Amino acid sequence: MQRLAGKVALVTGGARGIGLAIARRFAREGAAAVILADRDNAEAERVAPENPAFHPCPLDVTQDEDWARAVDRTVARHGGLDVLVNNAGIAVVGTIESLTLEEWRRVQDVNVDGTFLGCRHAVRAMKPPAGRGGAIINLSSVSGIVGGHNLAAYNASKGAVRLLTKSVALHCARQRYGVRCNSIHPGFTETDMLRDLAAGSRYTPDELSERLRASVPLGRNAAAEEIAGLAAYLASDEAGFVTGAEMVIDGGVTAQ
Protein backbone atom coordinates (compact mmCIF):
# COMPACT_ATOMS: atom_id res chain seq x y z
CA MET A 1 0.00 0.00 0.00
CA GLN A 2 1.09 3.58 -0.72
CA ARG A 3 -1.16 5.45 1.70
CA LEU A 4 1.53 8.04 2.43
CA ALA A 5 2.67 8.67 -1.14
CA GLY A 6 4.44 12.01 -1.41
CA LYS A 7 4.10 12.91 2.26
CA VAL A 8 6.89 14.37 4.39
CA ALA A 9 7.12 13.03 7.95
CA LEU A 10 9.29 13.83 10.94
CA VAL A 11 9.69 11.13 13.59
CA THR A 12 11.38 11.93 16.89
CA GLY A 13 13.41 9.15 18.44
CA GLY A 14 13.38 7.80 14.90
CA ALA A 15 16.64 5.88 15.03
CA ARG A 16 15.53 3.01 17.25
CA GLY A 17 12.62 1.06 18.70
CA ILE A 18 9.08 2.14 17.90
CA GLY A 19 10.33 5.30 16.20
CA LEU A 20 12.45 3.36 13.72
CA ALA A 21 9.64 0.88 13.09
CA ILE A 22 7.33 3.81 12.29
CA ALA A 23 9.92 5.40 10.00
CA ARG A 24 10.35 2.14 8.10
CA ARG A 25 6.59 1.67 7.75
CA PHE A 26 6.14 5.24 6.50
CA ALA A 27 8.82 4.67 3.86
CA ARG A 28 7.14 1.44 2.73
CA GLU A 29 3.85 3.33 2.50
CA GLY A 30 5.41 5.74 -0.01
CA ALA A 31 6.48 8.73 2.11
CA ALA A 32 8.69 11.02 0.06
CA ALA A 33 10.85 11.89 3.05
CA VAL A 34 11.07 10.57 6.60
CA ILE A 35 13.15 12.76 8.91
CA LEU A 36 14.88 10.67 11.58
CA ALA A 37 15.01 13.31 14.30
CA ASP A 38 17.09 11.99 17.15
CA ARG A 39 19.29 13.37 19.90
CA ASP A 40 21.74 10.61 18.97
CA ASN A 41 22.39 11.83 15.44
CA ALA A 42 25.18 9.29 15.00
CA GLU A 43 22.64 6.50 15.32
CA ALA A 44 20.32 8.25 12.87
CA GLU A 45 23.24 8.62 10.46
CA ARG A 46 23.95 4.91 10.80
CA VAL A 47 20.36 3.93 10.00
CA ALA A 48 19.71 6.46 7.22
CA PRO A 49 21.46 4.60 4.36
CA GLU A 50 18.98 1.72 4.55
CA ASN A 51 16.31 3.76 2.75
CA PRO A 52 16.60 6.73 0.35
CA ALA A 53 13.60 8.35 2.04
CA PHE A 54 15.47 8.60 5.36
CA HIS A 55 17.10 11.89 6.34
CA PRO A 56 18.87 12.18 9.72
CA CYS A 57 18.39 15.35 11.74
CA PRO A 58 19.86 16.20 15.16
CA LEU A 59 17.12 17.15 17.61
CA ASP A 60 16.96 17.54 21.37
CA VAL A 61 13.19 17.58 21.88
CA THR A 62 13.53 19.63 25.07
CA GLN A 63 15.02 22.61 23.20
CA ASP A 64 12.75 25.09 21.45
CA GLU A 65 15.51 26.29 19.13
CA ASP A 66 16.24 22.72 18.03
CA TRP A 67 12.60 22.27 17.10
CA ALA A 68 12.50 25.52 15.14
CA ARG A 69 15.62 24.54 13.22
CA ALA A 70 14.48 20.97 12.49
CA VAL A 71 11.00 21.97 11.28
CA ASP A 72 12.23 24.93 9.24
CA ARG A 73 14.91 22.78 7.60
CA THR A 74 12.35 20.10 6.77
CA VAL A 75 10.02 22.60 5.14
CA ALA A 76 12.85 24.26 3.21
CA ARG A 77 14.35 21.01 1.92
CA HIS A 78 11.23 18.96 1.30
CA GLY A 79 8.54 21.51 0.56
CA GLY A 80 6.48 21.12 3.70
CA LEU A 81 5.64 18.95 6.70
CA ASP A 82 2.67 16.58 6.53
CA VAL A 83 3.18 14.28 9.52
CA LEU A 84 4.82 14.67 12.93
CA VAL A 85 5.29 11.69 15.22
CA ASN A 86 6.22 12.73 18.75
CA ASN A 87 7.77 9.42 19.75
CA ALA A 88 10.85 10.36 21.80
CA GLY A 89 10.37 9.52 25.46
CA ILE A 90 12.01 8.20 28.59
CA ALA A 91 10.87 6.21 31.61
CA VAL A 92 12.20 6.16 35.16
CA VAL A 93 11.15 3.56 37.71
CA GLY A 94 10.20 5.20 40.98
CA THR A 95 7.39 5.68 43.48
CA ILE A 96 6.19 8.99 44.91
CA GLU A 97 8.57 8.38 47.82
CA SER A 98 11.65 7.17 45.95
CA LEU A 99 11.70 9.54 42.95
CA THR A 100 14.03 12.52 43.12
CA LEU A 101 12.91 15.93 41.91
CA GLU A 102 15.63 15.76 39.27
CA GLU A 103 14.25 12.45 37.93
CA TRP A 104 10.70 13.82 37.96
CA ARG A 105 11.68 16.94 36.03
CA ARG A 106 13.74 15.03 33.48
CA VAL A 107 10.81 12.77 32.57
CA GLN A 108 8.41 15.72 32.26
CA ASP A 109 11.01 17.67 30.27
CA VAL A 110 11.35 15.00 27.59
CA ASN A 111 7.89 13.47 27.54
CA VAL A 112 5.68 16.51 28.14
CA ASP A 113 7.70 19.58 27.13
CA GLY A 114 9.11 17.76 24.12
CA THR A 115 5.63 16.83 22.92
CA PHE A 116 4.32 20.34 23.55
CA LEU A 117 7.14 21.92 21.55
CA GLY A 118 6.74 19.43 18.73
CA CYS A 119 3.02 20.09 18.46
CA ARG A 120 3.51 23.84 18.51
CA HIS A 121 6.11 23.86 15.75
CA ALA A 122 4.22 21.31 13.64
CA VAL A 123 1.03 23.38 13.79
CA ARG A 124 3.04 26.42 12.73
CA ALA A 125 4.34 24.56 9.67
CA MET A 126 1.10 22.76 8.77
CA LYS A 127 -1.52 25.48 9.13
CA PRO A 128 -2.60 27.69 6.23
CA PRO A 129 -1.71 29.69 4.33
CA ALA A 130 1.85 28.33 4.13
CA GLY A 131 1.04 24.78 5.22
CA ARG A 132 -1.19 22.16 3.66
CA GLY A 133 -2.65 20.63 6.80
CA GLY A 134 -1.37 17.42 8.30
CA ALA A 135 -1.38 14.85 11.06
CA ILE A 136 0.27 14.92 14.48
CA ILE A 137 0.68 11.60 16.27
CA ASN A 138 1.70 11.64 19.92
CA LEU A 139 3.02 8.48 21.53
CA SER A 140 1.46 8.18 24.96
CA SER A 141 1.08 4.79 26.68
CA VAL A 142 -1.37 2.63 28.57
CA SER A 143 0.49 4.23 31.48
CA GLY A 144 -1.26 7.45 30.50
CA ILE A 145 -4.60 5.75 31.18
CA VAL A 146 -3.96 3.49 34.17
CA GLY A 147 -1.49 3.93 37.01
CA GLY A 148 1.46 1.92 38.21
CA HIS A 149 2.72 2.11 41.78
CA ASN A 150 6.34 2.60 40.69
CA LEU A 151 5.88 4.75 37.58
CA ALA A 152 4.82 8.04 39.16
CA ALA A 153 6.72 10.34 36.81
CA TYR A 154 6.02 8.29 33.70
CA ASN A 155 2.29 7.98 34.50
CA ALA A 156 2.01 11.72 35.00
CA SER A 157 3.88 12.51 31.79
CA LYS A 158 1.91 10.15 29.58
CA GLY A 159 -1.39 11.30 31.08
CA ALA A 160 -0.37 14.84 30.16
CA VAL A 161 0.39 13.76 26.58
CA ARG A 162 -3.07 12.17 26.37
CA LEU A 163 -4.90 15.37 27.26
CA LEU A 164 -2.53 17.73 25.44
CA THR A 165 -3.38 15.76 22.30
CA LYS A 166 -7.09 16.44 22.75
CA SER A 167 -6.50 20.16 23.33
CA VAL A 168 -4.36 20.46 20.19
CA ALA A 169 -6.95 18.52 18.18
CA LEU A 170 -9.80 20.76 19.30
CA HIS A 171 -7.84 23.97 18.72
CA CYS A 172 -6.84 22.97 15.19
CA ALA A 173 -10.40 21.84 14.39
CA ARG A 174 -11.89 25.13 15.62
CA GLN A 175 -9.37 27.09 13.57
CA ARG A 176 -10.09 24.93 10.47
CA TYR A 177 -6.36 24.33 9.99
CA GLY A 178 -6.81 20.89 8.46
CA VAL A 179 -4.49 19.50 11.16
CA ARG A 180 -5.49 16.34 13.03
CA CYS A 181 -3.91 15.26 16.32
CA ASN A 182 -4.24 11.81 17.91
CA SER A 183 -2.45 9.79 20.56
CA ILE A 184 -1.33 6.16 20.48
CA HIS A 185 -1.28 4.21 23.74
CA PRO A 186 0.89 1.12 23.36
CA GLY A 187 0.92 -1.61 25.92
CA PHE A 188 4.04 -3.58 26.75
CA THR A 189 6.24 -3.50 23.66
CA GLU A 190 9.53 -5.28 23.02
CA THR A 191 11.90 -2.31 22.74
CA ASP A 192 14.98 -0.84 24.39
CA MET A 193 12.71 1.00 26.85
CA LEU A 194 11.56 -2.33 28.27
CA ARG A 195 15.19 -3.21 28.88
CA ASP A 196 15.77 0.20 30.48
CA LEU A 197 12.86 -0.41 32.85
CA ALA A 198 14.37 -3.77 33.79
CA ALA A 199 17.59 -1.97 34.74
CA GLY A 200 15.62 0.01 37.30
CA SER A 201 13.93 -3.06 38.74
CA ARG A 202 14.99 -6.27 40.41
CA TYR A 203 14.36 -8.31 37.26
CA THR A 204 16.48 -9.16 34.24
CA PRO A 205 15.11 -7.97 30.87
CA ASP A 206 13.89 -11.49 30.07
CA GLU A 207 12.27 -11.89 33.49
CA LEU A 208 10.50 -8.53 33.23
CA SER A 209 9.33 -9.28 29.70
CA GLU A 210 7.87 -12.59 30.87
CA ARG A 211 6.12 -11.00 33.86
CA LEU A 212 4.56 -8.34 31.67
CA ARG A 213 3.55 -10.89 29.04
CA ALA A 214 1.72 -12.91 31.69
CA SER A 215 -0.56 -9.94 32.41
CA VAL A 216 -1.61 -9.44 28.78
CA PRO A 217 -4.88 -11.18 27.80
CA LEU A 218 -3.48 -11.97 24.33
CA GLY A 219 -0.54 -13.67 26.02
CA ARG A 220 2.31 -11.70 24.47
CA ASN A 221 3.91 -8.28 24.27
CA ALA A 222 3.53 -6.06 21.22
CA ALA A 223 6.04 -5.85 18.40
CA ALA A 224 7.13 -2.34 17.43
CA GLU A 225 5.89 -3.03 13.91
CA GLU A 226 2.34 -3.37 15.21
CA ILE A 227 2.49 0.12 16.70
CA ALA A 228 3.89 1.36 13.39
CA GLY A 229 0.89 -0.01 11.51
CA LEU A 230 -1.47 2.07 13.63
CA ALA A 231 0.71 5.15 13.17
CA ALA A 232 0.60 4.69 9.38
CA TYR A 233 -3.19 4.62 9.48
CA LEU A 234 -3.39 7.80 11.58
CA ALA A 235 -0.93 9.54 9.27
CA SER A 236 -2.92 8.63 6.17
CA ASP A 237 -5.94 10.22 4.57
CA GLU A 238 -7.94 7.14 5.60
CA ALA A 239 -8.02 8.69 9.08
CA GLY A 240 -9.33 12.01 7.79
CA PHE A 241 -12.23 12.03 10.29
CA VAL A 242 -10.12 10.91 13.26
CA THR A 243 -8.86 13.60 15.59
CA GLY A 244 -8.55 13.91 19.37
CA ALA A 245 -8.70 10.13 19.64
CA GLU A 246 -6.73 7.93 22.01
CA MET A 247 -5.87 4.74 20.18
CA VAL A 248 -5.15 1.92 22.62
CA ILE A 249 -3.06 -0.98 21.32
CA ASP A 250 -2.36 -3.12 24.37
CA GLY A 251 -3.46 -6.70 23.83
CA GLY A 252 -6.45 -6.18 26.10
CA VAL A 253 -4.64 -4.93 29.22
CA THR A 254 -6.91 -1.93 29.82
CA ALA A 255 -10.05 -4.00 29.14
CA GLN A 256 -9.55 -5.85 32.43
Automatic annotation (TrEMBL):
Which Pfam families would you find in this protein's record?
adh_short_C2 (PF13561)
Q: Where is the Ketoreductase domain?
A: 7-191
User: Mind listing the UniProt keywords for this protein, alphabetically?
Assistant: Oxidoreductase
Reading the lineage from the top rank, the first entry is Bacteria
Q: Is Oxidoreductase a UniProt keyword of this protein?
A: yes
Q: Which terms does the record give in the GO molecular function aspect?
A: oxidoreductase activity, acting on the CH-OH group of donors, NAD or NADP as acceptor
Q: Which InterPro entries match?
A: KR_dom, NAD(P)-bd_dom_sf, Sc_DH/Rdtase_CS, SDR_fam
UniProt record similarity statement: Belongs to the short-chain dehydrogenases/reductases (SDR) family.
Q: What is this protein's name?
A: 3-beta hydroxysteroid dehydrogenase
* Organism whose genome encodes this protein: Methylobacterium platani
Q: Which lineage?
A: Bacteria, Pseudomonadati, Pseudomonadota, Alphaproteobacteria, Hyphomicrobiales
